[in-house]
Amino acid sequence: MTTAFDFKATALDGQPLDLAAHAGKVLLLVNTASKCGFTPQYEGLERLWQELGPEGLVVIGFPCDQFGHQEPGEAADIQSFCALNYGVSFPLSAKVEVNGAGAHPLWQWLKQQKRGALGIGAIKWNFSKFLVGRDGKVIDRYAPTAKPESLASDIRAALAG
Fold first, then answer.
1. 19 vs 67: CA distance, rounded Å
2. DSSP label at 127?
3. Do residues 8 and 17 lie in contact, with contact meaning Cβ atoms separated by under 8 Å?
4. What's the Rg (C-alpha) of the chain?
5. Tens digits of per-residue pLDDT, 45-87?
6. Could you give the count of Cα atoms lying within 13 Å of 91 in the half-sphere of its Cβ?
7. CB under 8 Å to 46, separation ≥6 — which residues?
8. Considering 17, 19, 36, 131, which one is annotated as catalytic?
9. Active site includes 64?
10. What whole-number distance in Å separates Cα of residue 73 and Cα of residue 63?
11. Sign of CA dihedral 11, 80, 68, 117
12. Whole-angstrom distance between the N-terminal and C-terminal Cα of the chain?
């Protein structure tokens, strides 16, 4: 059976990003963008990473330019923006697609595991979030409007489980 820990991506700095390195931890996987109305959520994601990371939470951002061209920059631009404006220190992948024929295999799998509102599989917008348990299975999917702090109780339950 496939789990989130079976997938690999490329980190924003070009290095391998192997989710197997986080096996046994809780993952919060988020498609992100620097020029989106939800971009301030980076702050809440960083807070979760800082507060719950020591307990086993790993937040990973997946920059995506599929929605309104809201992630137009290159890797260095994205890294600089996130660090300077939101103090982001959690891992970021290289830009990925989350929908369509070019969707990253991880995101294809995530959408198969948990469909969105009204049973829709596609990612609707930036800052869609997937919570993955220590066993690598998707626990829940959250809409872009769900603020990171609203996920804290679910994340704590996953960490305890």
1. 25
2. T
3. yes
4. 14
5. 999 999 999 999 999 999 999 999 999 999 999 999 999 999 9
6. 21
7. 59, 86, 87, 88, 89, 90
8. 36
9. no
10. 10
11. positive
12. 20
